[in-house]
Design goal:
With 105 residues, the protein is mainly alpha-helical.
């Protein structure tokens, strides 16, 4: 008799499987696309700000690769790179001051 592993995402509900599978930047890319198509420039700006925030966070997490979903949208790619660069510069400035404990926070 075959029994299945109830902890496997293949045997769980769709929502359980989706919780375990994430695509970096999907939320931001979708918000950008929807806002852009609707002509909602405040929404576009919010998505671009989110891309910059993701760049900063990726630096903090040691991720050097841009989310693939940003790569073909010039504005999202630019803002991710900007956020990454800002956080990199902040880190370098802290290290230059000699306060390595602050750099690790």
């Amino acid at each position: 008799m075959h029994t299945h592993n109830s902890r496997s995402p293949l045997h769980g509900s769709t929502s359980e499987c989706l919780k375990q599978t994430t695509v970096r930047g999907l939320d931001t890319r979708c918000r950008y696309a929807i806002a852009h198509m609707a002509g909602d420039w405040n929404g576009v700006d919010a998505a671009l700000n989110a891309a910059g925030d993701k760049g900063m966070r990726d630096f903090q997490l040691g991720r050097s690769r841009m989310p693939p979903l940003f790569a073909d949208v010039t504005e999202l790619a630019r803002e991710w790179k900007r956020g990454y660069a800002i956080e990199s510069e902040n880190f370098a400035a802290v290290l230059a001051r000699g306060d390595s404990t602050e750099a690790l926070d």
